[in-house]
Amino acid sequence: MTIHVAFLLTPNLHLLDLAGPAQVFSTANDLGRGYRLSYVAETETILTAQGIPVQAQVRWPDLGADDLVIVPGWSWSRPRRGPTIGPETAQRLRRHHANGGTVASVCSGADALGTAGLLDGRQFTTHHDLAGELAAHYPQAKLVRDVLYVTDDRVTTSAGIASGIDLAMHLVAGNDGPEVAARVAREMVVYARRNGHELQESVILRHRGHLSDLSHRVQDLIDERYADRLLLSDLARQVGVSERTLTRVFVAATGLTPLRYQQLLRLEKAEHLIGHGTTVEAAARTVGFEDARMLRRLRSRSEKPAEG
């Protein structure tokens, strides 16, 4: 069976929002699966946010219940100047979903689904920088923060830009099975096929927004050997400072001690393994814990709701 994947393009389109998912379905075709790709828009030429024009067709293809419409994201302007898609396009999205079809969005593309009324009463996600704004625009929708993608009643929304690849992998896995999605990931040299509940920002990125060269060098050491037993004295020696200086500078830059940073990194790696079927005990050993008790304690702490 051939599944038609129609990409709805909008002005200021982000290239990776389009190219990432398109590459996933194209690679699946190379592996013998059946996807037909087309590109529709309200005008024949769309200028992307990166300055490259792309061509689209203004006439929509005939779509059935097994087919898919994906809305890639665009460069978001503040304040929002109104809907990016017109009433006729919004109606086409509603009609496709009402006829049993699936609709999906990447990043700010969720705004188009909101304009079409497809987020009302449903869970959705988007780029973490846009989450609050879109939640305010669509109060009847249920925002899920800081996840890669969410599916609710054939409406699938994903986080920012590169997460469109994860979204497309998820859709391929749903149609063709996880083995095919894994083969696509290998062909695309994707590091890992991530589950939807995984965080948008990794521990590595979340604690790298500082200007301390010393802390960056220590983080490089921990990132490379997070599963090893790393002594504070060894880290301090490798970067040429005292243990006291290392701790003071690292905490000021990241808000964490080196040990706590390593623990969070191990926890994130373990959660990824568990999400893909590894037992807690095996995941604990793989990421460097001597047994699963410490991992269970860390997971329990991370699951507690924040106060206030």
Automatic annotation (TrEMBL):
Domain HTH araC/xylS-type: 216-308
Source lineage: Bacteria, Bacillati, Actinomycetota, Actinomycetes, Propionibacteriales
Keywords from the named record: Transcription, Transcription regulation
Name listed for the protein in its UniProt record: Transcriptional regulator GlxA family with amidase domain
Gene3D superfamilies cross-referenced by the UniProt entry: 3.40.50.880, Homeodomain-like
Organism: Nocardioides panzhihuensis
UniProt cross-references to PROSITE patterns, sorted A to Z: HTH_ARAC_FAMILY_2
InterPro entries associated with the record: Class_I_gatase-like, DJ-1/PfpI, Homeodomain-like_sf, HTH_AraC, INH-QAR
Molecular function terms, GO-annotated: DNA-binding transcription factor activity; sequence-specific DNA binding
Entries under Pfam families matching the protein: DJ-1_PfpI, HTH_18
